[in-house]
Amino acid sequence: MPIQILSPQVANQIAAGEVVERPASAVKELIENSLDAGATDIRVEVRDGGRRLIRVQDNGSGIPTAEARLAFERHATSKIVSLDDLDRLTTLGFRGEALASIAAVAHVTLLTRAAGEEVGAFIRIHEGREVAREPRGTPTGTVVTVEHLFANLPARLKFLKQPTTEAGHIQHIVTRYALAFPERRFNLVNDGRLILQTSGSGKLYDVLVKVYGLDMARQMLPIEINEYPTGTRSANPRISESANPQSLIRVSGYAGTPALHRSNRSYITLFVNRRWFQDTTIAYSVIQAYHTFLPSGRYPVALIFIEIDPADVDVNVHPTKAEVRFQFDRAVFSAVQQAVRKTLVELAPVPQVEAPFSATTPPASGVQWSLGGIDGWASRRDALLGAGREHGDLTVGAQPISPQLPASGPQLPLLRVIGQLNASYVIAEGPDGMYLIDQHAAHERVLYEQMLAQHVEDRLPIQPLLEPLVLNLSPEQAAVVAEDLEILNNLGVAIEPFGGASYLVRSIPAVLRGDEPQSALTEIVDGLMQNSDTVASSREALLITEICKRAAIKAGHPLSNPEMQELVRRLETCRSPRTCPHGRPTMIYMSATELARQFGRT
Length: 602
Ligand code: ADP
Ligand code: MG
Description:
By secondary structure, this protein is an alpha+beta fold. The protein is 32% helix and 24% strand.
């Protein structure tokens, strides 16, 4: 066959594959167009998971009749003129591909009227061919209707999932835009059923409630707007000279409390300049911020809004615009991590106890405690913020660790020790109720923060061994030690290869003083081994965690009153007293009000 140029119709159909992967991609593009048109009311209707019908209606600026047909041409856009415009981009669209792509693989009708025009325009396009065009009356705004999606692409049709699955993807898309644009009203109707409606009140929390439900929304902590410098711009010919050489990254949003964890990372939602994007590295920075707050293998819920100069982010990475590239990726990574970490350290609440029995039906044997909903963090936050407390940021591994660690004053109220329960729990009274403290978890937390602080200040006490100890390890254990040799030595385990799988140990961290060094070290190495997938930057913190786990008082160990008082006093000065370094709670709390309620006093 001779070389020939594809007809625009075929070219559009090929290109459409990249832009419109499934019904949800069409919905995404149409919503973006409505948002770009300044619409304050966006209604989405789908049938059969979008296969039969997708309709997006808005009250935006509309398209002038003279331009309506042009909007369906490939690379036809009113949003940019030159590549430089991408550095000042304020719209979601800019590639001029969406309408052309959708119209190439479906039957599309456009009904639109521009503000200031008397009559609107109606256009119908079937798989790239115009089949009708006429003037028509309609309110200002635009309605795009997509039918028979992929009817001409059987291969694509075959890959579509069940309508409910496709509808789920669509709901996801609408949800993300509703979260990013709380000041606009969104409405999603699926097969005649209203499944999402936001008020457009402008309050993100209102949308959060609609999207996640009240229970979950109440467990989300607001990330106050935090600003971080990006670092100095390198000479970038595309950035005009007037641009500020120091730009800022602004981070805000919501972070779930540590109690709100999930089995995968899909609940970490990221936006840059209100554009949703996917980025495993930034998602990882959120996960790292929860380090020691969450049980291992669990992931947080978070909504992160990044605002940055458009010149510092490249959104033109992929036709679906779902990936971006940051010029200062490290700065963005650490900004997100610090903002989330700060929120958690300041606001994460103590889990509260809800007694699972009612006053009228006491349980037959023993009382079972359970961790219930979390309340009262808002007042706690206000108290903290109102006090104007400044916390440095606790980060681990490669990130800086604030040196004045446990010195920032009590984060718990003063507690009075009442006694010990089951040789495992300390019962204490605070000004506002009862605290039940897990002695092992609490001691782990105390030792962890103490060791971190000492390590940062380079004054970690070390216990030399009277005689060097030969550790004979299994090959797996030896491999872990070989990999973490430097970290072990940094943390006071003076250890060197001794041939094969053997190692010679000359000192241990002083917290392990009095312990049997052989079994302590083996247990710590096993702990490192079990968590071998943790990335390098946090292995140091992981090792500290393992050392503290071994060094902390065990459950079942009776404590004297002065010992309990000492433990509680030290816990009060911890930066994050409410969770152990593994993320489990150190304490549960029952408020005086709840006690009164349980006893029928209120
Ligand atoms: P892009 O959004 O990248 O510019 P599209 O193919 O999505 O490309 O849309 C082409 C043009 O059609 C847009 O630039 C805009 O001018 C116009 N347009 C599309 N949808 C709407 C809408 N809902 N309201 C107003 N104008 C629209
Ligand atoms: Mg568009």
